[in-house]
Amino acid sequence: DLPLDSPKLRSIKTSANGFHSLLSETAETLANRYFEESKHLLAIRFFKYSSVKLSTFLQRFLVSSSSDVRFATIEYLQQVLFQPNDPRVDETPELSNSIIQLFFHFAHSKLANVIIKSHLTLYDKNIALQFL
Asked: For 95-110, what is the mean pLDDT?
């Protein structure tokens, strides 16, 4: 057993953080590349492993009218919104309202779960109640 403050353990932690950063950067690069090539479903898969902020992600994908892209976007949102303290979630009232509207229009059966159990808090409560 290594003590928590041992140099070897600190070195391992530093290496792990470096690998995580490299994985995140690589995933973002691949996601951007696939997005530019209009391979949106592949792009979404790589965005899941990147550190791209939620607002940036949604700016790209909300413009698509493809049902496959909308489905994948909903899946991505479910992964991100239910993670406690996910650093990718840069919540604003406008972003939260957009997400609530997205679920209302394209995944209505999941809307209540998002409102009640997700980590979104800045949405307009009146709009959310109206959509339910």
From this structure: 94
